[in-house]
Structures are given as C-alpha cells and as structure tokens.
Known about the structure:
The chain has seven helices and four strands. By secondary structure, the chain is of the alpha/beta class. Strands 1-2-3-4 form a four-stranded parallel β-sheet. Helix 1 (27-54) links the parallel strand 1 and strand 2. Helix 1 packs parallel to helix 2 (80-97) and helix 6 (162-170) packs across helix 7 (180-217). The mean pLDDT is 94. It comes from Spiromyces aspiralis.
Amino acid sequence: MHDGKIPEHLFLCAGLSLPGIFVEQDISQYERNMNINYFGSLYTAHECVRLMVNNGVQGSVTFVSSLLGLFGLIGYSQYVPTKYAVRGLAEALRSELQAYGISVHCYFPATILTPGFDEENLTKPAITREIEGTDEGQSPEVCARKLLSGLERGEFAIASDSLGWIFRCCSRGAAPMNNVLTDTIIAAIGWIAIPCWRLYADALVKKWARANAKVKSQ
C-alpha cells in the first residue's frame, strides 16, 4: 500500500539481460535472470492483485515483456525464456482477473535506450549485435508514451514499433486482437517477412559458426 491506499494501476517493469553464448555461460546467470525478470514480476503482481481483489479495487495490471518475448535469438538464451514466462503469466491473468474487473496488459518493447541497455552491450556477442543492426532503439520517454497510448485504447498486447506489431500479430496465440482488420493485414505481411528474416538471421549464425571453427583450428 502507498500512504494507506491500495494501488489501482500496477506496472511491472523488472528486467535484466545478460547476453552470451549458451555453452559459455554459467547456469547461475539463468537463475538470476529468471528470479529478477519473472519472479520479480510474479511476486509483486501476486501481492498487489490480492490487495486489489480483497478490497474491491478495479484497476489494471501491466506487465513489461519484450520483443524477445515473441521470438528467440542467439545470445539471449538466458533472457528470452523469462520474457516468454512474463507473457504467459499476463495472458493467464488477463483471462482470470476480468472476473474482478481488473484489466491486464502486456507490453512488448524492442530496445529501450537505458543504462541497463548499456550494461547489456558489455557482454553481447558480436553475432547478436550484427543481427540486431537495424534496431536503433527508442528513448524511455517514447516507449512510455506508446505504452500509455496502447492502454488508453484498451489493448492487451502493446508494441511500440513495426517489428513489435508484426511479431505480435504473428505470435498472438489465443490473445485478443487489438483491431481485427489491421492485425489481419499486419499478420499477412509477417507471414512473408518473418520467414525471410529468419533465413537471413540463420545464415549469419552459420557464417559466424564457420568463422569461429576456422579460428579454433588455427
């Protein structure tokens, strides 16, 4: 509680990324990432939602996942599962908490230009940087405005750039559409664009693997 008041709106923004190559990372990094990114959101949501429900407060809960909560990428094997988990929790609670008049939302931002991103880049593999090359990132202020705009429109899954819209629409599962017409059009674009992007990314990974093998053999 804050000054004796039950929160009406909860934003769960816990996030940590420790990029690296799977076989080179210690398992403790995976445990740390899950504890912060998933359990940090889970514990906070559980405590706050119980207070809201027990006191009849009807508000909203917003989870911050990631663009990488919609697809996997080399270098992020310790991060991607945590953000998929956040997405899964948000989808389950979206269904359940409507029984109490509490709306649930999930935000899928791409790169946000924060000190955390600078720290992430310290260990990020070169191949990951190469694949991410076109992602210039957005400021926290821009992301916050786009998140709030999505909340005002009542969207469950909120994205703040074109890649987010495409992956959101093509990875929707049973989550509700934001707009039937535009989501269908974007999904149709994604069915063509995403396989092409995946072929490109896979080609870069295989090229990187051959280069690494050549270096090790010398």
